[in-house]
Amino acid sequence: MQFFIYFGLAFILISGIFIGGFTTGYQQRGNFYSEQKEDRKMKRKVANWSALAGIISFAIAGIIHLLN
Questions:
Q1: Structural domain boundaries of the chain?
Q2: How many CB atoms lie within 10 A of CB 8?
């Protein structure tokens, strides 16, 4: 169960990094205007898939916890 919790945390962290969730507004604005449109799409896609994997991992950990 702990494996899935750590796995979920890692994926949520990856998602936050790719979406730019750990930056200030000024940094995020600067990054937005300095990136190309294709790069933003790619980052958003990676962030969405890693967030989904993190949520699924947390759900599996919760199910394992309930079954024990």
A1: 2-67
A2: 21
Helix axes 2-19, 37-67, angle to 10 degrees: 160
d(CA 5, CA 3): 5
Give whichever of 9-13, 17-21, 26-30 has the largest mean pLDDT: 9-13
Q: What would the pLDDT profile of 41-68 be if each residue is shown by its tens digit?
A: 999 999 999 999 999 999 999 999 999 9
**Contact present, 56 and 10 (Cβ < 8 Å):** no
Question: How many CB atoms sit inside 10 A of residue 58's CB?
Answer: 17
CA distance 53 to 68: 23
Burial of 25 (0-12, 13-18, 19+ CB in 10 A): exposed
How many residues are present in the chain? 68
